[in-house]
Amino acid sequence: MLPNINAREIKPLTTDKCTLDLIAAESRAIVSEREDLGLVLPAPDVAKRLIRSTVVQAETSGAEKEVKGRGGKVLLRYSKSRGGFTFKVPAKSNGSDAEVLEAIGALLENG
Question: What is the pTM of this model?
Answer without folding.
Answer: 0.47
